[in-house]
């Protein structure tokens, strides 16, 4: 729920600062990485969760939606800041390190709580990291961006 709220705020911020195309691109990337792709893979794979969980949670285990969602949101936000807003190298390094640490802590927490296997969180991370790579490739190759 929090990532959804932050995603909407990011969308509105990008619309105001970078325009509609850029905000739609980011919104579509987040929608795919946070919700659509992880759910599609979950319902293809149908892997049950580990049995000794510290918290009660339902649904399928593979891939981790939290790992995919946090990678999509924090990764996208960090990359946008690094590529389009921050000028100083030290600021870019700090944002990159903080995003990596936050994503890593979320991934670790899912395994620690016993609701995912390590392969689940690695798959969620990989799914969204791949999506981000493809999405940024599309952004930089799009004719709309070339004109602006």
How big is the Rg?
A: 16 Å
End-to-end distance, in Å?
33 Å
Shape annotation: globular
The total of helices stands at 6
Taking pLDDT < 50 over at least 5 consecutive residues as the criterion, the unreliable ranges are none
Helix/strand order, N-terminal first:
HHHHHH
Class based on secondary structure composition and strand pairing: mainly alpha
Characterize the biggest β-sheet. Answer: none
Number of domains: 1
Q: What is the compact description of this entry?
A:
The protein has 148 residues and is mainly α. The protein contains 6 helices and no strands. It has one domain.
General description of the model:
- This protein has 148 residues and is mainly alpha-helical.
- The protein has one domain.
- The protein is built from 6 helices and no strands.
- Helix 1 runs antiparallel to helix 2 and helix 2 runs antiparallel to helix 5.
- It is globular, with a radius of gyration of 16 Å.
- 30% of the residues are buried.
